[in-house]
Amino acid sequence: MIPKAELHCHLEGSIPPVLARELAARNGVALPDGMFDGKGHYVWRDFLSFLDAYDRVCTTLRQSRDFGDVIYAYLAGAAREGARYVEMFCSPERPAALGISYNVWLDSLEQGIDRARRDFGIEGRIIVVCIRHFGADRALAIVRTMVAEPHPYVVGFGMGGDEAKYTPADFAPAYRLARDKGYGCTVHAGEVLGPESVWAAIRDLPVTRIGHGVRSADDPRLMEELARRGTVLEVCPGSNIALGLYPDRAAHPLHRLIAAGVRVTLGSDDTPFFHTTLGMEYDKAGLGEAELRIITRTAIEASFVDEATKQRLLREIAP
After folding, report:
1. Up-side HSE of residue 184: CA atoms within 13 Å toward CB?
2. Under a CB-based contact definition with an 8 Å cutoff, are residues 240 and 217 in contact?
3. pTM of the full structure
4. What is the longest distance spanned by two Cα atoms in the chain?
5. Is 191 noted as a catalytic residue in this protein?
6. In whole angstroms, what is the distance from residue 134 CA to residue 141 CA?
7. How remote is the C-alpha of 133 from its chain's centroid?
């Protein structure tokens, strides 16, 4: 089995329907009618209904232990498909709304990561993310908490949310603080919006990675610049196709990006919503074993994990 590594998946978006039902039962949450189809899958039709379904799943999270159970479940599944390392996007917004402190939340995630390492040998780390459409002040507050209360498993800072809201420059103070305190930085861009959003991100933010970034393929000059900089794109083909960015994998720009010399990784984004997994992304990429091994190596090289762990992982995946 080809060793794998993942840099782009969201904690709440990784909750499979069976776990959502378990969490709901444990926490006394009544799930709405129509949340699941006849096969037990989440029901959604377009981007807005996907966001609505995502929010409904989030309501099953009520206790600090829930977050640890979710990250453990994801790491366990990824390990069974050959994953050696995963960086998970984790937003402190949900636990904060529940009255769960930042440190208690992280302690639960740490326990889930440690259990997965013990049971499956997989390594996991956390990227704390802000929500773009919540604004720059919230983002800066999150980073201030992150740097004031450091945790060894928190290795980076990122941003998801609505690309159309605000500009990357608005978040530069938050990103500069994270970078100056030694955290790796990534940002979602070039998914819903075009190449201009990636240009703005690499111009105004200290990022070494771009979440998605697939619309960069629309601009040959941008691909040249990304290749020159060595900026890594966290590409999630299954997600892009499910959300209608591209009609199928043949139309997806993964191969064009690689041919242009852009460094890429493969991610699952929100696994149960898009009916994909990290293993499926590798299997359906249309690449040979040597190319897939390069993608895994790229992911580990571009990861934000400490250098000693990074070098150990690189040795472990060597053919």
Report:
1. 23
2. no
3. 0.94
4. 53
5. yes
6. 11
7. 17
In SS3 terms, 247-263 reads as: CCCCCCCHHHHHHCCCE
Write out the two tokens for 46.
Answer: 């377009």
Phi and psi torsions of 12, nearest 5° = -65, -35
> pLDDT for 236-268, tens place per residue?
999 999 999 999 999 999 999 999 999 999 999
Contact 207, 186 (CB under 8 A): yes
> What b/e readout covers 197-223, taking b as 16+ CB neighbours within 10 angstroms?
bbbbbbebbbbbbbbbbbbbbebeebb
Separation of alpha carbons 160 and 187, rounded Å: 7
Q: From the CB of residue 2, how many other CB atoms can be counted at a distance below 10 Å? A: 16
Set 81, 191, 234, 281: catalytic member: 191
Q: Model confidence over 100-126: pLDDT tens digits? A: 999 999 999 999 999 999 999 999 999
Amino acid 216 reads S
pLDDT in tens, 270-305: 999 999 999 999 999 999 999 999 999 999 999 999
Identify residue 295 by its one-letter amino acid code.
I
